[in-house]
Specification:
By secondary structure, the protein is α/β, with parallel strands linked by helices. It is about 35% helix and about 20% strand. Strands 8, 9, 10, 12, 13, 16 and 17 form a seven-stranded antiparallel β-sheet that branches. Strands 1, 2, 3, 4, 5 and 6 form a six-stranded parallel β-sheet that branches. A hairpin with a 5-residue loop joins strand 14 and strand 15.
């Protein structure tokens, strides 16, 4: 059987699920997929790989490859690698992303570009799947076309081998006849060309964003949506013949055993990084009670740990699922009376799943309640593979049909509208389809790992030794799947409840004082950004753009710089600009007094603040609304710092909206001040980013993630 190497780089499980789908379908098309996570470098070697390579890569943060690809990217970006080190490799790549963010599918593009720089060539066009409109619009046709591309590659390779063999035979015969003929050199060179030649280079962008629009032809014609909902549809979808995916193969055997031991602690959560359990020493509400969003500052006591950080670093908070949602899920699964039973897993002997492995995020022997609370992302939006699996455990024919529609190609628009866009969870689906009775095995096979939530450090170890501070908004949103429910973010909702005991009713600074109840504790792990740090040269000017909670790392910068200036009064320190924005001056101006102090002391040389919801005062002109407006007002100074004084600019905040607007403003400023066209300005900005003089540190606001700060 024709073998190909199949690698996936995943952050939350999407790329893995797609790679597993490819692996399952490969056998039916006469191929054997050697499936591995891209982090499992001991199980493959691209330098010696002779089979074609297929890679599925997601994107996280500010256009970065996922954490699982960190070491792989570091390895292939080694500048010591020769430009032809992967010239033998032929590959196809599928990138996953969201076009609402600035760097669409950039995780895949980074790997794609570097593989080509090392001599690798495509045997199949790169695909860029857009989660904004539905990944399946590109993923499904890309997978459908993969088999023909692999067949063509193997056919071409076999023909090439035969031609090489024939030339070798002719070469050997000629050498025996006359070793001195000069034309033999020509034959040898032809053999080498056949061995190293590219079987046909294609445009790596052919499956770009335009492919999304072209793929919509497979969807049904527009229908009257007035009566359609999560649980029912209208013609033509309700009468259409459906193309549903094959049922995912079962692969786990689950055994529940009564527990005799003590209850587990959250320290049992699996993590590649060290975990520190630390007490909360302080909590402050930074916004007024009538602010649209509630922002809290939390201080952790890390004095008894070896946890270390620099200003600009982020760290992970290990959080649980909502206890009420866990109990509701247990009740719906009819497992409430077995919630304390220990869960033991093993691979089913008769499974048809290729490369089946135990989920590493589910520790063996832990209680069912612990696993649902600390290990599985029960708020995750169910993938179509999970919906397809639920079909086989649904008895009501109408409910079964509707689940089939939602996971079908024809029902893609309904899946996006009623499942993905409404942020439906597995529990929502089980409540909406009461005849669906999935086994526990199905949850453990399909639900992804509950991810820790990253937050940026608001402190400096110079100004707050032994302390670590961070801030967060308590995120709330409406869920309208079956009925309208107000939900809180997984992590911020939990954190708000944890710090409630240290936050006095007057919402002022409070401390966990000795002699009273012990201070609440949370678990954290390090997460170093490596590049979102102050420049090594303190004389370099700095521009900081951070509206809302995006100001967090810059408070750490300013605290650190303040101490450095105290320690080195004769030192030369560059200018520091801060563009900050919020809704209302009197409600959510975060760190107002601290910023004024920095400005008065000369640490912060320029403080530019905008208020998006405050009305103009008297007959004055309308105030500047957004940070990009303020940047535009100071375009000459910004351009001078970036283009002539080797300044650095840091952008922290909302990745979907603010980051795009700031990026567009910078391009506009560079174009105007440098007197160049927009395309040239884009290139100049890209050069600044390559020089690490433009750094993005962006928040991805998603559900079930509450506030995922990504780097």
């Amino acid at each position: 059987m024709r073998r190909f190497l199949l690698l996936y780089a995943t952050q939350k499980g999407q790329a893995k699920a797609i790679a597993e789908e490819i692996c399952e379908k490969a056998f039916a098309h006469g191929f054997s997929a050697d499936l591995h996570c891209i982090s499992e470098s001991d199980k493959y070697d691209l330098k010696t790989e002779t089979a074609p390579l297929v890679v599925v890569v997601s994107t996280t943060g500010a256009g970065d490859p996922p954490d699982t690809a960190r070491e792989f990217v570091k390895a292939i970006q080694d500048k010591a690698l020769p430009g032809d080190s992967l010239a033998h490799l032929r590959y196809g790549l599928l990138g996953l992303g969201d076009s609402e963010y600035t760097y669409f599918c950039n995780g895949g593009k980074i790997i794609d570009k570097r593989l080509q720089e090392l001599g690798a060539r495509h045997f199949y066009d790169t695909g860029h799947a857009d989660d904004c409109v539905g990944l399946e619009l590109v993923v499904e046709p890309w997978i459908d076309g993969l088999w023909a591309a692999l067949t063509k590659h193997f056919t071409s390779s076999r023909g090439k081998v035969e031609r090489i063999g024939a030339l070798r035979v002719a070469l050997d015969a000629s050498r025996r006849m006359d070793r001195l003929k000069p034309e033999l050199l020509h034959i040898e060179s032809q053999v080498e060309l056949l061995r190293l030649g590219d079987p046909g280079r294609r445009d790596s962008e052919a499956w770009g964003q335009n492919a999304v629009d072209g793929s919509r032809s497979g969807a049904p014609a527009a229908e009257t949506e007035s009566e359609s909902s999560l649980t029912c549809s209208e013609p033509p979808l309700s009468q259409a013949a459906l193309s549903t995916p094959a049922a995912p193969p079962e692969y786990l055997h689950v055994r529940l055993q009564e527990s005799l031991g003590p209850e587990e602690s959250q320290a049992s959560v699996t993590s590649v990084d060290p975990i520190f359990q630390v007490p909360i020493s302080k909590a402050v509400q930074l916004t007024t009670n009538d602010a649209i969003k509630t922002t809290l500052l939390v201080e952790l006591d890390i004095s008894k740990t070896d946890f270390s950080y620099q200003p600009g670093d982020a760290f992970n908070v290990i959080c649980p699922n909502s206890d009420s949602e866990v109990q509701n899920l247990l009740q719906r699964l009819q497992l409430t009376d077995r919630r304390e039973h220990c869960v033991h897993l093993k691979i089913k002997e008769d499974t048809k799943k290729k490369g089946a492995a135990l989920p590493p995020h589910v520790p063996d022997g832990r209680s069912l309640q612990f696993i649902l609370t600390w290990c599985l992302e029960i708020r995750a939006v169910p993938k179509k593979a999970l919906l397809r699996a639920l079909v086989d455990h649904t008895s009501d024919l109408r409910e079964k049909r509707r689940l089939q529609e939602l996971c079908s190609r024809e029902g893609a628009a309904h899946y996006n509208r009623f499942v993905r866009d409404e942020r439906a969870s597995l529990l929502d689906l089980l409540l909406a389809f009461p005849s669906c009775r999935p086994p526990l095995r199905l949850l453990l096979e399909h639900l992804p790992k509950l991810q820790p939530r990253p937050y940026s450090c608001v402190s400096s170890n110079l100004s707050h030794p032994g302390k670590l501070r961070f801030i967060f908004n308590i995120v709330e949103f409406l869920s309208n799947t079956t009925k309208e429910v107000l939900r809180k973010g997984v992590c911020t909702g939990w954190l708000a409840a944890v710090v409630a005991s240290v936050l006095r009713p007057d919402m002022r600074v409070s401390r966990a004082e000795g002699g009273k109840a012990p201070a609440p504790e949370i678990s954290i792990s390090p997460r170093t950004t490596n590049f979102f740090h102050l420049p090594s040269d303190p004389s370099a000017p700095i521009i900081m753009v951070g509206p809302g909670t995006g100001v967090a790392p810059f408070i750490g910068f300013l605290l650190h710089r303040e101490k450095l200036q105290e320690q080195h009064p004769d030192g030369h320190f560059g200018a520091m600009w801060l563009f900050f924005g919020c809704r209302h001056k009197d409600r959510d101006y975060l760190f107002r007094e601290e910023l004024r102090r920095f400005h008065q002391r000369g640490v912060l040389t320029h403080l530019k603040v905008s208020f998006s919801r405050d009305a103009p005062v008297g007959e004055e002109d309308a105030p500047v609304k957004y940070v990009q407006d303020n940047i535009r007002l100071h375009s000459e100074q910004v351009a001078r710092l970036l283009l002539h004084e080797r300044g650095c600019i840091y952008v922290c905040g909302d990745a979907k909206n603010m980051a795009k607007d700031v990026n567009d403003t910078l391009v506009e400023i560079i174009s105007k001040q440098a007197g160049v066209e927009k395309l040239e300005a884009l290139k100049m900005l890209a050069t600044l980013k390559e020089e690490k003089r433009v750094s993005d540190y962006l928040f991805i606001w998603t559900v079930p993630d509450v506030r995922v700060t990504t780097v």
